[in-house]
Task: inverse folding
């Protein structure tokens, strides 16, 4: 058995090791390049590093022992306070999961500072007893994203002019204005014209996205029959579906379904979703379109028996330039921008878009918007979505 002196020595050694480990943890916390804040189970700040103080423009006295939401103010793009329940730290604490997203903080120097924040709950026996948030200033990244969007817009405009001339003269050649073409020449011209169409489609997509991202998209809302829009576009895609022997079915209400929205944006959303469903469904498959009113919203549902989206790829479906790994081998052409634009428009219209999918079984995409929506907040809401990417 250990005598008293040995027990005391062991206790001293354990205490020293604990103090040393705590010192290491404190040093690590203090020297982090990102802002770091630790709170207890009541949301009271008990630790904050110098980086966080510098970003927020605070002193330790102004932060320590204070309630986190009172010290760190989170706001929307329009500089409105974000409700406590929607804050990343609240969601992380309630769910027990790590939450990462872009958000705006109100500081003494900047009423709307863009930051990227990650909040991790501190768990003890599966129960949260606090949380740690790390964050960094992403002002420069935000500016670079804007510059990229503006560059793409300018480049696309410059490309459109020469491409328009190429398109015009190529079609004149194909139609025999410069003399009859041989069979081989006509085949070559078909390939050229097809490539021109794809290039035009790509440029149009780039321009649409850049206008949305920079808040330059003109919104023209009116009272329209959603049912008629879906019916018209479905009819236009009927031949595309028939060429692949795909059964395109529609289940639409008999009566008009009025909605206040921009008809061009609704057309863009449905065209992208339906085009994808047909494109990524193999021959002799089925695509089902359903439109119905659900309380104060209208729900569009598009189901297919296509390739489906692998589970490991589903988190990035609405990201820019996303293409699932199983699709790139089957369909080589694709920009990966369609669903990104659908998400932008849905967010801006105060609606939602989501999906369920199983690889080699098929996918179902849902698009829901309010019956009445003036779209006044479109640019701001678009920007909030972009901050989360």
Result:
């Amino acid at each position: 058995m250990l005598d008293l002196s040995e027990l005391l020595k062991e206790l001293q050694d354990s205490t020293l090791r604990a103090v040393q480990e705590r010192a290491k943890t404190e040093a690590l916390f203090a020297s982090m390049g990102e802002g770091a804040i630790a709170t207890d189970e009541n949301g009271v700040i008990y630790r904050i590093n110098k980086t966080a103080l510098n970003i927020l423009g605070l002193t330790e006295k102004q932060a320590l022992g204070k309630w986190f939401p009172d010290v760190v103010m989170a706001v929307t793009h329009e500089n409105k306070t974000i409700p406590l329940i929607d804050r990343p730290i609240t969601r992380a604490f309630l769910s027990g999961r790590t939450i990462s997203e872009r958000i705006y903080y109100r500081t003494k120097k900047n009423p709307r500072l863009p930051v990227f924040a990650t909040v991790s709950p501190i768990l003890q026996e599966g129960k949260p007893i606090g949380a740690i948030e790390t964050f960094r200033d992403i002002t420069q990244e935000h500016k670079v994203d804007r510059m990229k969007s503006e560059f793409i817009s300018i480049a696309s405009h410059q490309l459109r002019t020469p491409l328009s001339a190429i398109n015009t003269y190529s079609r004149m050649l194909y139609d025999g204005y410069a003399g009859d073409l041989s069979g081989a020449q006509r085949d070559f011209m078909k390939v050229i014209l097809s490539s021109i169409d794809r290039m035009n489609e790509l440029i149009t997509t780039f321009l649409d996205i850049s206008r949305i991202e920079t808040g330059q998209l003109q919104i023209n809302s009116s009272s329209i029959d959603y049912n008629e829009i879906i019916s018209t576009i479905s009819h236009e895609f009927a031949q595309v579906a028939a060429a692949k022997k795909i059964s395109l079915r529609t289940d639409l209400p008999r009566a008009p379904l009025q909605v206040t929205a921009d008809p061009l944006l609704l057309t863009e959303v449905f065209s992208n979703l339906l085009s994808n469903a047909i494109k990524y469904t193999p021959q002799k498959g089925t695509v089902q379109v359903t439109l119905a009113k659900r309380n104060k919203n209208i729900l569009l549902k598009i189901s297919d028996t296509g390739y489906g989206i692998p589970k490991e790829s589903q988190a990035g479906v609405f990201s820019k330039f996303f293409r699932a790994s199983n699709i790139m081998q089957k369909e080589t052409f694709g920009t990966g921008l369609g669903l990104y634009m659908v998400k932008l428009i849905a967010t801006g219209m105060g609606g939602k878009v989501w999906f369920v999918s199983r690889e080699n079984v098929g996918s179902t995409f849902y698009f829901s918007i309010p019956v009445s929506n003036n779209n006044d907040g479109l640019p701001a809401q678009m920007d909030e979505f972009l901050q989360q990417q």
The longest strand covers residues 113-124.
